[in-house]
Design goal:
This is ATP-binding cassette domain-containing protein. It holds the Pfam family ABC_tran. The protein has 329 residues and is α/β, with parallel strands linked by helices. The chain has a six-stranded mixed sheet, with helices on both faces. β7, α6 and β8 form a beta-alpha-beta unit. It has eleven helices and 14 strands. The C terminus is likely disordered. It has two domains: 219 residues, 3-Layer(aba) Sandwich (Rossmann fold); 70 residues, Alpha-Beta Plaits (2-Layer Sandwich), CATH 3.30.70. The chain starts with 7 loop residues before the first strand and ends in an 18-residue tail after the last helix. The relative contact order is 0.14. It binds adenosine-5'-triphosphate and magnesium ion. The site of magnesium ion has 4 residues, from α1.
């Protein structure tokens, strides 16, 4: 084994479901011991890619290697080296949280004592200590999700796949999950995680691949992407719709980007690099032009903003509910 070989390589992965093209030539490369964030809207193809890389699904075209083994022809070798937390739960709801963890540890050849010790650590880390001896079927959705994650952390796999690890979790639990991921990575595990949250990818990932309609449309380190996209977003709401064009021009001039305009909400937004200076310039420009502002904000960019900048259109989604999904800032 060489140390320079990437832990995950995918090239030209294609997958079709009926007439729906889920993956359209997806390329990925993840260095050993690093974290790749696969960022994309609903229906982008993230779960399909994870399913192929974890040998659960066969691609129609292209190839992939995980931990040095081909996912199609050496699936068994791949499986013993990976962990997967999916969007479906792997836990047994009849058992308590603790029993689930201990059982999983025993299945992975930990001694009874080591399995109990590992279960205690994970229950603590995932905020499940109090609920440890209750049946998992009585857990809330968020607690089940954390138990499901904890199960995939029982043993440290070489490569860990986390499909939306923090969706539906409150901010405190998200940070706990992030901290456990960091601990595993420090121990040498390679992680591929999918997420809708730009801030999550920013927090955890060494590199981010932005996926849209089954292919990677941008990739780089979080800092590279942010410097391309602007570190912050200026949002303006005008009092009078008739001044939108004027305001858009001012925002475009200051930000150097093409602003996103929502006429119905009388809203103009654009990415900026130097937060306060840009905001000050925008407000000065508006005042000089006598444009009346109802509300103004500087905020973290969302996945929608990223797509707006990369594609010039809103993130396409096959889930109507996704349009109203709040992206944590
Ligand atoms: N079993 C299936 N049968 C038919 N179409 C499917 C199936 N699984 C996925 N698709 C379609 O393939 C595309 C990619 O789906 P996928 O689940 O990989 O997206 P995703 O990026 O994981 O989305 P999400 O963020 O909602 O989890 C979507 O258009 C989806 O509707
Ligand atoms: Mg998915």
């Amino acid at each position: 084994m060489t140390t320079t070989r990437p832990a995950i390589v995918a090239s030209g992965l294609r997958k079709r479901y009926g007439d729906k093209l889920a993956l359209d030539g997806l390329d990925l490369e993840v260095a050993e011991g690093s974290v790749l964030g696969l960022l994309g809207p609903n229906g982008a193809g993230k779960t399909t890619a994870v399913s192929i890389l974890t040998t659960l699904l066969r691609p129609d075209g292209g190839r992939a290697e995980v931990a040095g083994f081909d996912v199609a022809t050496q699936a068994a070798q791949v499986r013993t080296r990976i962990g997967l937390t999916g969007q479906t739960d792997a836990i047994d709801e009849i058992l308590t949280g603790r029993q689930n963890l201990v059982m999983f540890g025993r299945l992975h050849h930990l001694s009874p004592r080591a399995a109990r010790k590992r279960a205690d650590e994970l229950l603590e880390q995932f905020g499940l200590t109090e609920a440890a001896d209750r049946q998992a079927k009585g857990y809330s959705g968020g607690m089940k999700r954390r138990l499901d994650l904890a199960v995939s952390f029982v043993t440290a796999p070489k490569v860990l796949f986390l499909d939306e690890p923090t969706t539906g979790q409150d901010p405190r639990n998200r940070m706990e999950v992030w901290s456990v991921v960091r601990t595993l990575v420090a121990g040498g595990t390679t992680v591929l995680l999918t997420t809708h949250y730009l801030d999550e990818a920013d927090q955890l990932a060494d590199r981010i691949s932005v996926v849209d309609r089954g292919r990677v449309i941008a990739d780089g380190t979080p800092n590279e992407l942010k410097s391309r996209l602007g570190a912050s977003q200026v949002d303006l709401v005008l009092r009078d719709e008739r001044q939108l064009d004027e305001a858009t021009e001012i925002v475009a001039r200051v930000s150097g980007a093409t602003p996103d305009v929502d006429r119905e909400r009388r809203r103009v937004s654009a990415p900026v690099h130097d937060r306060v200076a840009s905001l000050t310039d925008v407000l000065a420009g508006l005042q000089a032009a006598a444009v009346a502002v109802e509300d103004v904000a500087l905020r973290q960019p969302t996945l929608d903003d990223v797509f707006m900048q990369l594609t010039g259109t809103r993130a396409e989604s096959d889930d109507p509910a996704a349009d109203t999904t709040e992206v944590a800032a």
